[in-house]
Amino acid sequence: MKKSLLITAVLGLALLATGCKGTTNKNYILATGGTSGTYYPFGGAIANIWNTKIENMNVTAQATGASAENLRLINKGEAEYAIVQNDVMDYAYNGTDLFAGEKISNIMTIGTLYPEVVQIAVSKASGIKSIADFRGKRISVGDAGSGVEFNAKQILEGYGLTFNDIKKSNLSFKESAEGIQNGTLDGCFITAGVPNSALQELAFTAGLILIPVDGKAADAICDKYNYYTKTIIPAGTYKGTDTDTAALAIKATLAVSSKLDEATVYEMTKALFSNLDELATAHAKGKEVTAKAAITGVSVPFHPGAIKYYKEIGLMK
Predict the structure, then answer these.
(1) What is the 3-state secondary structure (H, E, C) of 206-265?
(2) Of 83, 4, 20, whose CA–CA distance to 46 is shortest?
(3) Which of 79, 171, 225, 297 is the Cys-Cys partner for 29 at CB 3.0 to 4.6 Å?
(4) Residues with Cβ within 8 Å of residue 11, at least 6 apart in sequence
């Protein structure tokens, strides 16, 4: 009898231990961006899907300084996931441009999310019809050292120009729009989701012209920098823009630490792309996310867990 009770007690403890192990939460950080930007609420919507669709999952969307900081957080082990621009992720992975001399190799891709369009606006008085007309003009290329500045450099290069060929200013989006409005600037580069609030305000006040990136120049830029994708800024996006405008976009991308195991990343990738209707309901940008588009604009290797999911649904071989 005592032996029987002892065996029962041991089995009970074993089952209890197994049960406790099975209910251990997986706690992760998803690095996003500033609370007033798109990344933070969008990341919150992604985290909510993971937390409600995956048992014992606990992901916290953390406000940060966005792309460059997010990649450094993953590198330091202070975040497992991050939303970043795919061009900045490329710089980090290869140790170039913003990350010159600071190569970050322990980052991988889950998928791209939605396009952030390089929007090139000029004043109506500037007489500019093409990027080739930028020579000698007063152009803002975004904050110094920003991803926008590198976008501007690369696109100018596609048209045979450098920063030395323009009168360059490094201004914020709001300051750039104000400069065009008050006549101190001829044009500006803004990399952001469409529509951008600074350009919307400019269109309603002084008006603007959107300059396309197309033809052989667009092909050459995309061939050299494979994180760009071609897109269209639809007619009517801004007041007075009555025709579609060809443009290039970089992608907001879901990055992950290469240290996470395949099973976990597979489960999270599947949960996200199986619940895009909920993502679209939670945030407008969710309407632009698809599994098919998620494998485009990627220059940093996919995580094996993401690859497993994309193979499962026939998007990869």
Answers:
(1) CCCEECCCCHHHHHHHHHHCCCCEEEEECCCCCCCCCCCEEEEEEEEEEEEECCCCHHHH
(2) 83
(3) 79
(4) none
Number of other residues whose CB lies within 10 A of the CB of residue 288:
17
Residue 9 scores a pLDDT above 60? no
Q: At what angle do helices 86-94 and 67-75 cross, to 10 degrees?
A: 40
Phi, psi of 111 (to 5 degrees): 170, 160
* Per-state percent for the chain, helix, strand, coil, to nearest 5: 45, 20, 35
Q: What count of other Cβ atoms lies within 10 Å of the Cβ of residue 41? A: 17
Tokens of 255: 């990055």
DSSP assignment, residue 85? E
Question: Which three-class secondary structure state does DSSP give residue 239?
Answer: coil
CA distances for 31 relative to 70, 235, 248, angstroms: 6, 34, 26
Q: What is the pTM of this model?
A: 0.78
Asked if the peptide bond before residue 195 counts as cis, ω within 30 degrees of 0, the response is yes
What is the C-alpha separation between 113 and 207, in angstroms, rounded? 31
Structure tokens at 90: 């490329």
If you search the block for the tokens 């913003």, which residue do you land on?
A: 98
